[in-house]
Amino acid sequence: MRMKKLLYLAIGAVVAYGIYIAISLMFLPSVAELKNRRTTMTIQVKDWHGEYHPFTVGPKNRYWTPSGSIPPEMKWAVILAEDANFYKHEGIDVKAIKNAIKYDLEKKSFARGASTITQQVAKNLFLSREKTISRKIKEIVLAKRMEEELTKGRIIELYLNVVELGPMVYGIGHGARYYFGKPASALTPRECAFLAAMLPGPRVAYNPYKNLGKVLKRSDMILRLLRGKGVLSDDEYRQALAQTPNIAGLQRKVDASIEKEETTFENRTGATVPLEPQSTTAPDEQAPEEVPAASSQPAANGEPAAGDGGEQQSPPPAR
């Protein structure tokens, strides 16, 4: 009798949870406004001390980099490294999910995720970072809606402008300035691969100040992927491999910035609490542009063509 009662309670809990999820899905935000490339929204991002700060997504952020100013090598570096089926799936990658479940069961942990770039955009723009079933379901639903409303080029533009690359460094526009002292449009293939290599863990695992060798090794792998996909020629690949990103002396700049923030905070409160410098925002006069193709030639492998006006993008043919 007791077991029967427990079974009823369990079923009731599952039904109640299902109703809760169904209701919460009804109140998900619309993604339609994101079609307008001049749209600006404010989200919350976390610094490396766990504090949240407002972050502007859109042209009013002075580091915002419109799609037309993002090097094709940068786009392909993150696609090939993070979501190889980006131009084939419709928001979720079923095969990747199956592989992740198999891996996690073998390791008896939740060690591997299976989020697509679209899912990551949905999470970064609209959801919390909590690891719950309900959040994951919301993420999947929002990702599917984004794929219906937005072009692939718009999705990758949003993704590259909100990814974390350092202490309060979000987006490749800020990342390019922070690490290399240049705009994102001037990044070399090696620098593109370097930034893409940091994405799985810029705070610890792929922090270039702590694990530079690991970041360089992963960026070498990404360069090989770019060559294999035909984004780089043999000569461009060899030149990129021969380069070493110059980030010498940057740690001193970071330490000085943090020390300045700590001094300012101590003067105000009398307490010493380390704070990360926050990014500032200012109007960006540059209007968003369309995504340039990685090559003006037609794709040789039958994949989608390379535009962003509702078309999907494919790599240039191997040279």
From TrEMBL:
<dbReference type="GO" id="GO:0009252">
    <property type="term" value="P:peptidoglycan biosynthetic process"/>
</dbReference>
<keyword id="KW-0812">Transmembrane</keyword>
<dbReference type="GO" id="GO:0016763">
    <property type="term" value="F:pentosyltransferase activity"/>
</dbReference>
<dbReference type="InterPro" id="IPR036950">
    <property type="entry name" value="PBP_transglycosylase"/>
</dbReference>
<keyword id="KW-0961">Cell wall biogenesis/degradation</keyword>
<dbReference type="InterPro" id="IPR001264">
    <property type="entry name" value="Glyco_trans_51"/>
</dbReference>
<dbReference type="GO" id="GO:0009274">
    <property type="term" value="C:peptidoglycan-based cell wall"/>
</dbReference>
<dbReference type="InterPro" id="IPR011812">
    <property type="entry name" value="Pep_trsgly"/>
</dbReference>
<dbReference type="GO" id="GO:0008360">
    <property type="term" value="P:regulation of cell shape"/>
</dbReference>
<keyword id="KW-0573">Peptidoglycan synthesis</keyword>
<dbReference type="GO" id="GO:0008955">
    <property type="term" value="F:peptidoglycan glycosyltransferase activity"/>
</dbReference>
<keyword id="KW-1003">Cell membrane</keyword>
<keyword id="KW-1133">Transmembrane helix</keyword>
<keyword id="KW-0997">Cell inner membrane</keyword>
<dbReference type="InterPro" id="IPR023346">
    <property type="entry name" value="Lysozyme-like_dom_sf"/>
</dbReference>
<feature type="transmembrane region" description="Helical">
    <location>
        <begin position="6"/>
        <end position="28"/>
    </location>
</feature>
<dbReference type="Pfam" id="PF00912">
    <property type="entry name" value="Transgly"/>
</dbReference>
<keyword id="KW-0472">Membrane</keyword>
<feature type="region of interest" description="Disordered">
    <location>
        <begin position="263"/>
        <end position="319"/>
    </location>
</feature>
<keyword id="KW-0808">Transferase</keyword>
<dbReference type="GO" id="GO:0071555">
    <property type="term" value="P:cell wall organization"/>
</dbReference>
<feature type="domain" description="Glycosyl transferase family 51">
    <location>
        <begin position="59"/>
        <end position="224"/>
    </location>
</feature>
<dbReference type="GO" id="GO:0005886">
    <property type="term" value="C:plasma membrane"/>
</dbReference>
<protein>
    <submittedName>
        <fullName>Biosynthetic peptidoglycan transglycosylase</fullName>
    </submittedName>
</protein>
<keyword id="KW-0133">Cell shape</keyword>
<keyword id="KW-0328">Glycosyltransferase</keyword>
